[in-house]
Amino acid sequence: MDHIQELIEIEITELSEWQDRFRKNSFFELVFILQGKGIQSIEYRTQAYGKNDFFLLPYSKCHAYEISEPTTFLFVRFTEHYFKNLKNTSIDYLQWYSKLNYIIGFYDFNAGLYFSDEKDKNLVKKLFEIILIEKEQRSAYSETIIANTVASILTIISSKLIAPHEVCKKSDDKIEDIIQHINQNIIDENKLSVAYLSEKFNISKKYFSEYFKRNTEEPLKEYIQKTKLQIAVNRIKYTKSSFQEIAWSLGFTDSSHLNKSLKKYFGVTSSAVRKEKVSVMQISKEV
């Protein structure tokens, strides 16, 4: 597992008092509460935590824990290049990179993720337990097992997210599947083409663009562009990635192209978003 140590970190820490930690520029941090209870604070918003709760944090988020009962934390941190550098796995990097971007674009980092279904919460607990076991065993298959387990956790998280796009009340059920496909494959241009979408969802290629606009009230190209920009806004806000890196990763020519697109669709610049930490919801309300 040595060649991926810089791409993923798995740490277990028991604390009775919170201590600020030095964190590398990770794309994500998953936090699972093995034992204990207290209050989590994320940029001055608080929520109680207890055993078996878990949270998702982007790199640069200001957070802390007010520990009322000694707490054992399990931290799983990984970079955006983690899945790309894995060996001996069948994980599709483009698919998972799209999913990572989808999560960071639409996950509410202030409210967190609420599980109303205890089955889902118990499943996530079992997945974290698998990570713990493989961390200790470090067998020849541990790298593959951990990667697939992290991927499963992200799949559960992404399945709970609702993108801030509404479809027409008269639209059929198929459009929701199309939107979900687009959101979770947003980096893979081949899977966003009219040719691919029309064949996958059994809609005439000539009719598809009209069908999509009728059901979403905006052209396909514009929908994809706005979705990428919403992801860009959260990556600018919540990570320390450069504007150029964010632009390239989302398919923009360069940082100037990204900046012009943000200005065109949302009326803000990359610098303003990072400086003022303007939210996607604020932008959406102002447009």
UniProtKB/TrEMBL annotation:
Q: Could you cite one Gene Ontology molecular function of this protein?
A: sequence-specific DNA binding
What are the UniProt keywords, alphabetically?
DNA-binding, Transcription, Transcription regulation
Superkingdom is Bacteria
Domain HTH araC/xylS-type, first and last residues per copy:
176-276
One Pfam family of this chain: AraC_binding
- The protein, known as: Transcriptional regulator, AraC family
Tell me the classification of the organism that encodes this protein.
Bacteria, Pseudomonadati, Bacteroidota, Flavobacteriia, Flavobacteriales
